Amino acid sequence: MAFRYRCGECGFKTSWGTESQGEREQIAHYADRHPGLFPGGTVEANTKNPEGGSGCLGVLAVLFLLFVLAASCHR
Questions:
Q1: Does the reported pTM lie above 0.85?
Q2: Which helix or strand (DSSP H or E) is residue 5 part of?
Q3: How many CA atoms within 13 Å lie on the side-chain side of 28?
Q4: 30 exposure class (CB count in 10 Å sphere: 0-12, 13-18, 19+)
């Protein structure tokens, strides 16, 4: 899932990326544009275009099928 952080003080928003990337961009923005203020604002999550959200599930399904196939071939 991709995330974008919006500044609570102005119209700045980070690029879409990982949660940690967005946090770093937001902290850098606050240090540069709003020194002395605690970073605030909102976080958006892009649920329409997940970045590999079900990759692990697919790998587990393939491994399970291989296990079932191997178990059925073994006597």
A1: no
A2: strand 2-7
A3: 8
A4: buried
Give me the residue spans of the domains in the chain. Answer: 2-74
What is the C-alpha separation between 5 and 40, in angstroms, rounded? Answer: 9
Side chain identity at 37, as an amino acid letter?
A: L
Q: How far apart are CA 49 and CA 57, in angstroms?
A: 17
d(CA 49, CA 39): 27
**b (16+ CB within 10 A) / e for 43-70:** eeeeeeeeeeeeeeeeeeeeeeeeeeee
pLDDT 10s per residue in the chain (75 long)? 889 999 999 999 999 999 999 999 999 999 999 999 988 899 999 877 555 555 677 788 888 888 888 888 866
